[in-house]
Amino acid sequence: MSAMKHLAWAVVAAGVAMAGQGAEACPAVVKVVYPAVGTPVRLKVGKACYPVDLELDANTEGTVANLVLTMQGRGGRNLLEGQWHGYQRSDFAASDFAQGAAQSDYGAVRVMRLKGDRVTIRTVAVEVVPAVGGTWAFKRLVLTVRAKG
Prior knowledge:
The chain is mainly beta.
């Protein structure tokens, strides 16, 4: 990876870490990055702020085949999780991105409703690589999440 790409990732990681600090850091648009997970950013939805992060789902070979975008509500419940089973708008499967974000099941832009607000999830960058057994694994995923009333 070039020095410029390292610097860009350092800036993104620093921005993600800073966005999660302090009560004043609660914008209506945030960036969520894999592999820089585990440091939730706060997103303003309506009058409330919620922690947003990517949850890893590693397969048996230790690669990350699935990521779940989470917005933690009271009691740790993921507010983005739907009422149905199966592949949801908050799920990101590496195999779904083998042909790029635009050709994925939900496309590069996913829209959800949350408490009357529109939550837009945009895939800004994605890189997947072939994994053991004919599956795919994430190398990188960058999302922007925007809430608008």
